[in-house]
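Re: that chain you flagged

S.,

Sorry for the slow reply, it's been a week of failed gels. I finally had a moment to sit down with the sequence you sent. For the record, here it is as I used it:
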Amino acid sequence: MITLKEIAAEAGVSMMTVSNVINHNWARVSPEKAEQILAIIDKYHYVPNMAARSLSSKASHIVAVLLPLWYETADSLLLDPYAGQMVGMIEMLLREKNYYVMLCSFKTVEQVLTFQSNWQIDGSILILPHEDAITHELTEKSASPLVVIDRRFEDLPMLSVLVDDEKGGYIATKYLLERGHRRIGFAGPNFKDSSVIQSRYNGYVRALGEYGLSPDPELAFSGYYHQPGGEEVGKIIVGMERRPSAVIATEDSIACGIIKMCQKKSMRIPEDLSVIGFDDSLPARLISPGLTTVRQDIQHKAACAVNMLLNAISDSEKRDDSVTLSVEIVERESVASWAE
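Prediction finished late last night. Pasting the structure tokens below so you have them in one place:
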């Protein structure tokens, strides 16, 4: 394998000039010379020694994507469409900036701190935060910049990217109410386990209140995860004496599970049951009928998190920032009007 010194010799430049090209310090190298060096690098398939670069620059160019193990499924942490899409977008965006991504699953704060230290992590992005105590402690103790997606604590300086989850629950419920539905279910993980789910439920309650309605405990399907959880909700709905006319799921995979089970039990979607999801992930576009859902822009969300993290890596003063992104309804075929 060719070395940095050999590239410099072939290009007739110093090793520092080659290093500037590799590290994208374009202002220090003429365009012609940079193009020549890049051609040599490409010819020999040169790969920089990341360990050596870490020692010399005190930067690893590694970003950790943190996934709490509460989200673990039987097969993979990334089977959930939202998690898989978010990790994929973060990896692509960081790769374009010459960073490497390492996936870190964890149950305790100590596991993350050890991982960050052992790998000299430049920064981390936490997705799908679960227990507030763990997320809060991790935010306090992380030595390198940490961006938390979908959680913010007002008592801490922190970096966070949020979506307007309360609005999402509100507009989904209002959409159904405007079409005549009054007996509306709400399905998702345990509300107490996630501020995201609680916010979406609060929006649901607010919209019901505008129509003089109160949430019915019988229609709160709490503690259900992913498509298998949605199928369990579907079984419950099929067996109810007074079924809801519609149900809102806190993620598309739950909504798809509800649709699948209800169709299996000969219920028609949307004639017998209208269903709304959340995220606008790939399953929403593949299931039949197409799933009406609350869309969050996952690509933009990932880009905000990456940009926020890179800014904090380059400037240690930028450790307190937050952005909240909006949501919208995407209409497909899983909702029908209802007449009591």
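What I noticed first: The chain has 13 helices and twelve strands.

Talk soon,
D.
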